[in-house]
Each structure stands twice: as structure tokens, then as C-alpha cells.
Amino acid sequence: MKKLARHILSATLLCGLACAGAAQANETQWQKHHPRREEVNKRLAHQNKRIDQEERSGKISQAEARKLHREDQNIRQQERDMAKLDHGHITKPEQKVLNQEENQVSQQIRNGS
């Protein structure tokens, strides 16, 4: 009888862990699509396209494009780091900081530097 009880307990624990893992995976998917994160990441994607267009048109050099892409990558990493600290979310103040940094990169793209 004790063996049966242990097997039932083990099975219950495994089932619970599996369900928790599935819930965590779903939660992670939702967090990636959090509205503030989506807005920041859409802007970064748009800026990457703008950098490529400006380089192709000759308005900025390859070195300038690399520098701007690096700055965008740094902003993207900051966004990920901020989200990790708050269970997959970024706060409004964090979004504001990221938007200000994106505005600076946008200005550099516009100015060709």
C-alpha cells in the first residue's frame, strides 16, 4: 500500500511540474507580446530598416550604419534586461527611457551620423 501511495504522489508531482512548465511557457509567450515591449521592439525594428535604407542610399557610411545598429542592439538588450527584472514586463518609466534612447538614434539616422 505504501508503494502505491508513493507512486501516486510521484505521478501527482510530475503532473504538477509538467503543468507548471506549460503555464510558464504560455506566460513567457504573453510577456513577449506585452504592449509596452511590443511598442519598443517595433520601433527598434523600424529603425533597423531605416538604417539599412540610409546606408543603401549612400546617406550614411557602412561604419555609421554599424555604429547605429550597435546602438539599437544595446537598446534591445536593455529592454530584455528590464523585462527580466519585472517578470517579462517593462514599466512606463522604463519604456520612456528606452524611447528617449531610440529618439537619439533616430536623430542620428536623420542627421546622417
SSE topology sketch:
Elements: H1 2-32, H2 35-56, H3 62-85, H4 92-111
Helix pairs in contact: 2-3, 2-4, 3-4
Q: How large is the radius of gyration?
A: 22 Å
Q: What is the count of helical runs?
A: 4
Question: Could you tell me the mean pLDDT?
Answer: 81
Series of secondary-structure elements, N-terminal to C-terminal: HHHH
Shape: elongated
What is the CA–CA distance across the termini?
Answer: 76 Å
The secondary-structure class comes to mainly alpha
Task: State the major sheet.
Answer: none
Query: What oligomerization state is this entry in?
Result: single chain
Q: What attributes characterize this protein structure?
A:
single chain, 113 residues, mainly alpha, 4 helices, elongated
In short:
With 113 residues, the chain is an all-alpha fold. Helix content is 86%, strand content 0%.
Description:
The structure is a single chain. With 113 residues, the protein is mainly α. The chain is built from four helices and no strands. It has helices spanning 2-32, 35-56, 62-85, 92-111. Residues 20-27 have low confidence and may be disordered.
